[in-house]
Amino acid sequence: MRTTRRSATRTAAVVGAVAGALLLAGCTSPLPAPDPDPTPSEAVPALTTDQMAEVRTAVGTALEQAGATNDASQLSSRLAGPALSLRTSQLAVAAARGDGSLITQLPTDVQQDIITTTDTWPRQAYAVTVQPEDLQSPRLLAYEQGTARDPYKLWAWVRLFPSATLPTFAGAAVGSEAVPMDDSSLLVTPADAVAQYADVLTLGTGSAFAASFAEDPLRAWVASNATLQMTELAKAEGTMTMTFTPMPDQARAVRTADGGAMVVAGLSALETRTVEAGGTIAPGSETEKAIFGSTPATNVLNVGYTTMVAMYIPPAGATTGIQVLGMENVATSVATA
């Protein structure tokens, strides 16, 4: 059985820790990662590095084949969760607009693998990619195996913020503990951190948790989008609201070398634009138009988003707060109701 006390896992994490935190601004060089053999008393990683490479290749092949044909039906064999929803929408929009650049690049070459030591299912593994060819920031990829008979699938990904610094993790040969959503050894539990961030995205500075999170590109986009939409809606006595909600059972966490945790979570967002009765409101962006299609417009437009976020939660007693590391936020539905 692959079980061990958290103290043993933390010791292993310190021994096998990747030297230094990963500063993502302009990083393209490989990360040093000690690769000691685990002792019998230590939990064993769920995957070897060779197996992890095979997972990345299989997922990359599925993404490439689906992208080449704009056929989302090829995704389900190797994608799941928020990643499947988001990629399905990206393929549909890219086909409708005739623009393949709208599909997020997800490199299969990586700087670092983060493999969990859990002996139960579902199991997770993570990877930090090299910088994509379009010179955007590296991606954090999250993979999951639902049962012992299932293949590992890409469950989520985020674009890491250029200024973000990833926490340090144990080397892939040592492995990192999977963290439950109610873990109380952290500054806040992973479940609470995700819920609090969703509240901040919804209420902005009016959230009771606003001071717990620094400003970040996703918060900035939410604010600028609200300003943009209201500039036009105000001309028709319109209103606009946007609400972020944690997706049920769509958050995963892994232990960092300092006893904290990195959390990857899916959020759903609903943006509702309304104008006075008798008026009509049409989709704004080209992406919204592609999703909306030929549906007759009414005085209400609902734009749904699939949002994926990653954050670092320090251990309990830390003087630093939660750090949001990256996100992906894409419109996946546009409707009148």
TrEMBL record:
Coiled coil (residue ranges): none
Q: Which residues form the DUF8094 domain?
A: 43-329
The signal peptide annotation in the UniProt record is: 1-33
> InterPro entries annotated for this entry?
DUF8094
Superkingdom of the source species: Bacteria
Transport is among the record's keywords: no
Q: Has UniProt tagged this entry with the keyword Signal? A: yes
Pfam families in the cross-refs: DUF8094 (PF26366)
UniProtKB keywords: Signal
The protein's name: DUF8094 domain-containing protein
- Which organism's genome codes for this protein? Oerskovia douganii
